[in-house]
Amino acid sequence: MPISRPTDLAGALEVLAEVPTADVLAGGTDAMVEISFDHRRPEHVVALRRIDALREHRVSPAVLELGATITYMQIETELAEHAPGLAMASRTVGSPQIRNAGTIGGNLGTASPAGDTLPWLLAMDAEVELTSAARGTRHLPLAAFITGPKRTAREADELITSVRVPRVEGPQHTAKIGPRNAMVISVACVAVIVDTTNRVVRIGMGSVGPGPLRATDAEAAVSEAIDWEALRCPEAAIGAFGRACAEAARPITDHRSTAEYRRHAVGVLAARSLRRCLNA
Amino acid sequence: MSADTTGTTTRTPGVRDGLDTDAARPDGTPKVTGAFAFSSDLYAQQMLWGRTLRSPHAAARIVSIDTSAAEAMPGVAAVLTAPDVPGKATYGLEHADQPVFASDVVRYQGEAVAVVAAEHPELALRAVRAIEVVYAVTAPLTDPEAAIDAPPIHPDGNVFRHLPLRHGDIHATGEVVVEGTYEMGMQDQAFLGPESGLAIPSEDGGVELYMSTQWLHVDRDQVAACLALPAEQVRMTLAGVGGAFGAREDVSLQVHVSLLALRTNRPVKMLYSREESFHGHVHRHPAKMWFRHHADRDGTLVKVEARLVLDGGAYASSSTAVIANAVCFAGGPYRVPNAEIHGYAVRTNNPPCGAMRGFGVVQACFGHEAQMDRLAEALGMDPVELRLHNALRPGDELLTGQVITGTAPVREVIEAAVAHDLPPLPVDGESVMALPGGAGLTAERRDVRRGTGIAVSIKNLMFSEGFDDYSTAGVKLELDPRGRPIATVHCACAEVGQGFVTLAQQITRTALGVEQVLLRNADTQIGSAGSTSASRQTWMSGGAVQLACEAVQERLFERASVRSGVAVEAGRRRHFRMRDGEVVEVDGTFAMSVAELLAEGPIEEIREHHHPATEPLDEDGQGNAHVSFAFAAHRATVDVDPELGLVKVLQVATGQDIGRALNPRAVVGQIEGWIAQGVGLAVMEEILVQDGLIKNPSFTDYLIPTALDMPSVVQTVIEQPEPGAPFGAKGVGEPPTISSTPAVVAAIRAATGRELPRVPVRPQDIALT
Ligand SMILES: Cc1cc2nc3c(=O)[nH]c(=O)nc-3n(C[C@H](O)[C@H](O)[C@H](O)COP(=O)(O)OP(=O)(O)OC[C@H]3O[C@@H](n4cnc5c(N)ncnc54)[C@H](O)[C@@H]3O)c2cc1C
Predict the structure, then answer these.
(1) Phi and psi (nearest 5°) for A252?
(2) Which domains does chain A have, with CATH numbers?
(3) What is the number of other CB atoms lying within 10 angstroms of the CB of residue B177?
(4) What is the pTM of this model?
(5) The architecture CATH gives domain B287-464+616-767
(6) Most CB atoms closer than 10 Å: which of A226, B50, B743, B756?
(7) Which residue of A34, A110, A120, A181 is the best one to mutate when testing the B interface, meaning the one whose CB has the most B CBs within 10 A?
(8) B247-288: per-residue pLDDT in tens?
(9) Residue nearest (by alpha carbon) to ligand 1 atom 31
(10) Predicted interface score ipTM higher than 0.90
């Protein structure tokens, strides 16, 4: 099995253009598991680690852009200031070993309903940048990029090159439930951003639907209820926000939890996270 | 010297790393640095790789098996199915009811149907896939209660054992009665080193088998029977064991890999994947249990009634012994004058269950301890007080009518557990990681409630019901090339992490006054050591090493007699003793170094160590069935987030009856390790089985505690030397896991007010009820 280890983006795209069946390898923390479980048998691998450009981030006044192979460890440390909610979510991923290897592009590539960066990215209206040798670059909103559980709109010859989010002010909190206190796949999680720039509350919910979910009605109602000057919110509105988020969830029962618990838990997390953002 | 050696151990002052010290493990450094060779590291020139084809169904008839495509694949050396087994077609720890290969029906998901050997593991996998098996799937029998009366799914029937126990007046009643139904899910031993072994055909037509296992000789006998070989042609050597906890007591790949080696006449290695491992070994029995406790108003227990149903899965394994433990100890470590208990271990199409640390007592203890709390509540009594009031004492009778002749410091373990300080109260600025939910940042302190609970347990040591699980050890004392004495210990005791290798050295150093003690590989070139289970190896194999050392000492004294001219007569032992590497005359002046006495040649002695005989249980479950008992008490403190149902176990405080700490550091390790497993069972560890199929055969979804889930452990050991036990020491391995689980659940109940009749406690059990 050939392994290509390009050192620049063009090199990677060239291989993918020639061998569209090739598998992309970033940190390998999903890909290698699939290979050892024999769920995937690569014919050709394109490894991204040597492409320095993909590991960079850019901060402009309006936009934060994250290269695809930025690791969780980088997010937790270098990016904690620009993306506090994402940094919190990153700290919940696996173990230090996984966080040193795993990348944000890989989390997007896998598009698991339990992917821990996805609720935050969705809440932030993130756009995924896809690049191919043949068609150049396109940007897809995350909601359009993820087409189902572990399914994406990525074409075989495309690389995820970056993901970008608008820069907003205001407190953020993410919270994740698993049946043990660390190193666990999410049973329910939320990212809450109290966006004082646009005066809206944003929420992304994970593991309670086929992909990450927004709760737009809940967001609209609570954004109305907040006193944006004082950054305060009546407790009743916070409670209602939690219930509305629970209602917007579309959870299933599987071996990790029940639909009933997931719905309950995501509502509790939503309300608590909002309280936390507002110091209520 | 007899087995009764309490307090009479020959102590040789001055020897380093002898008994009662924190002697370091000989395998400690290699294990930590990665140099230790586990069975999965085994390698031989020209070796083939074996792989198993397993049933994907929990219940099915096998219509046909076609191996021709697999056999025709290049690089495939052998494909074996049931007709290729030359000897006995079945095996099993106590009852040989499990086919080496299923041929007509499969009775659980994962049952072996065929094995292949190929030049490369990948080829072996492809060959396994190329075998065509046509199954006619049938409805699996998965409800253990229904299995009792259901049409048999095996010629031996569905009830492995129904064990009734009647004690005292079964019609007695108490003034206060509490009743409850409890359930335990299927726990896995979750050892880290998957099943693996290497078989090498030998010139005499036999096989050399290198295997990680718990009991070499019982494996050997099963392999030999299936291979139709005399036992001496199956030579087993212990390979590095990466944990066991009961799961390696049964045969996994031993027969398969040996068959492949003999058929191909080449070395064959097998190594299970993690997923295969979950299908390839037995688990802890899930249980459904009903209890009714009667007591007088003052809290004195009057009667215990119970019905315990343990799901043994498809094959017998050790189910008959597991249910005996559950029944015998269903009353807990308390004086219970009257009892009627019915225990059933039944066959279903669920995964087979067998030995796991605590062995039947874990299930019963979860029930009887929940009952004791209920009773305390009904009586308006403090739960600790109620337990102290009923605590067993030496001379008391067990439910089986057996009188406790040894130590029984039940009161002491309870008092020690509750005497520890509670964990500190929350402080400002505490890490949110320390709250329930941990790294997930789900809670703040205001969302959390604290609770404390207690539980107490009794566990039998050694095998029971008339089983003579003896051990054998050989000790050779000689001079090394530099003229210094060196002892070599040979024992088939399986080192599975418990520290026998350390202990054997400590015993030998102390008994013979030599610092250099080597351990030979554990193998079948010497007699059986029995199983590394039932908290028995310190007592049984430790005792065998002690006896062999004493026999060697005796020979040294004989030599000293001759050299000193002191008359060799009966009772001569009183004339010599060991001191600082010398044999010295007791009431005289003669002294000679061990080295000098060894100049005329090495001394080697082999001894067997048997425990006092036990009896089978009669038709009322009465009899002196057990050798000795160990007790433990646990007090758990938890923080719970009731709204989300998340738990953080903060502290487990324990008092444990250990007889004597032969290696205090090793005792700490055993206690902490087993509390981890007990906490795991309380709040997360469960093999999820649906329609007979395992839903979580991986460490992604079979969760075991991480460092963030592990409570702090504070412990007090109660050292009351046990009469009849070598050095007075009791086994320490099992008690910590038995009552830590019910203690944690009691603490969660205290924090939340929920009933929680089932373990593991799931978030939804707390949050949604
Ligand atoms: C022990 C363990 C614990 C884990 N815990 C968590 C957890 O708590 N939360 C969580 O969300 N995840 C968890 N994961 C999953 C995994 O670590 C994450 O999904 C991670 O983000 C994957 O990134 P990676 O770089 O390792 O991806 P890889 O495994 O290299 O790739 C993942 C997939 O994305 C594709 N891909 C990767 N990069 C690109 C790209 N630039 N362009 C196109 N396709 C691409 C790959 O082809 C592959 O299909 C865990 C995994 C393990 C093994």
Answers:
(1) -120, 165
(2) 3-166 (3.30.465.10), 172-277 (3.30.390.50)
(3) 15
(4) 0.96
(5) 2-Layer Sandwich (3.30)
(6) B743
(7) A181
(8) 999 999 999 999 999 999 999 999 999 999 999 999 999 999
(9) A106
(10) yes
